[in-house]
Amino acid sequence: MATWSNLNFQDSSSPLMEQMIFFHDFSMMILMLIITFITYLMMNLIFNKFTNRFLLEEQLIELIWTIIPAIILIFIALPSLKLLYLLDENNKPIINFKAIGHQWFWTYEYSDFKKIKFDSFMIPQNNINLDSFRLLEVDNRLVLPMKTKIRILITSSDVIHSWTIPSLSVKSDATPGRINQANFIINRPGIFFGQCSEICGTNHSFMPIMLESISPNSFINWIKNY
């Protein structure tokens, strides 16, 4: 979960989020090399009394600073496109569930097992315990098994919302009259938090997402006993 001093990504909890962090680090490494090299050249030009006569008009240097950036962009684009297609890949999910956005709460439906449907409201600040998280606790958590291919179908009943859990690399708009889908695999047990990421009205900040990841056996018992 994000904290006040956290300036980086949240800890990864899914394979896709791991790949996104790797791509971010890869891109930042290239950017830092470019910035360092350009800074070095600029310092040489600024603090130098002499002017290179080939720098003012030279076909070779024009060719170099056209080809090299193109090659760098290719090295960045190829893993980016691969990751983009991996995020959209939705092959044979084991569990499907539906998230419906409302002003201002979420409704979840499990339709693969039996008709399980419940609303998830944020717990008001004056009702939470001292060990709870302000503006993130809900009365009904979304419960899912870990190490399982999961597909979420996302829609809305009123305005545009966005179902987002950063540590799972999931962010998809909930659009009225349309069903969007996303997929993810949870690596580990735990509780993961997210919030609506689309400005949807006055209480936009008060419709959090709280997902609890448990073992497959515990999930089956939860389904049976619900």
Automatic annotation (TrEMBL):
It comes from Thremma gallicum. It catalyses: 4 Fe(II)-[cytochrome c] + O2 + 8 H(+)(in) = 4 Fe(III)-[cytochrome c] + 2 H2O + 4 H(+)(out). Belongs to the cytochrome c oxidase subunit 2 family. The gene is COX2. The lineage of its organism: Eukaryota, Metazoa, Ecdysozoa, Arthropoda, Hexapoda. Binds a copper A center. Residues 92-225 form the Cytochrome oxidase subunit II copper A binding domain. It is a multi-pass membrane protein. Component of the cytochrome c oxidase, the last enzyme in the mitochondrial electron transport chain which drives oxidative phosphorylation. The respiratory chain contains 3 multisubunit complexes succinate dehydrogenase (complex II, CII), ubiquinol-cytochrome c oxidoreductase (cytochrome b-c1 complex, complex III, CIII) and cytochrome c oxidase (complex IV, CIV), that cooperate to transfer electrons derived from NADH and succinate to molecular oxygen, creating an electrochemical gradient over the inner membrane that drives transmembrane transport and the ATP synthase. Its cofactor is Cu cation. One of its GO terms (molecular function) is copper ion binding. Residues 1-91 form the Cytochrome oxidase subunit II transmembrane region profile domain. GO terms for biological process: ATP synthesis coupled electron transport. One of its GO terms (cellular component) is mitochondrial inner membrane. Keywords: Copper, Electron transport, Magnesium, Membrane, Metal-binding, Mitochondrion, Mitochondrion inner membrane, Respiratory chain, Translocase, Transmembrane, Transmembrane helix, Transport. The chain crosses the membrane at residues 21-43, 63-87. It comes from the Eukaryota. Component of the cytochrome c oxidase (complex IV, CIV), a multisubunit enzyme composed of a catalytic core of 3 subunits and several supernumerary subunits. The complex exists as a monomer or a dimer and forms supercomplexes (SCs) in the inner mitochondrial membrane with ubiquinol-cytochrome c oxidoreductase (cytochrome b-c1 complex, complex III, CIII). It is found in: Mitochondrion inner membrane. InterPro entries: CcO_II, CcO_II-like_C, CcO_II_C, Copper_CuA, Cupredoxin, Cyt_c_oxidase_su2, Cyt_c_oxidase_su2_TM_dom, Cyt_c_oxidase_su2_TM_sf. This is Cytochrome c oxidase subunit 2.
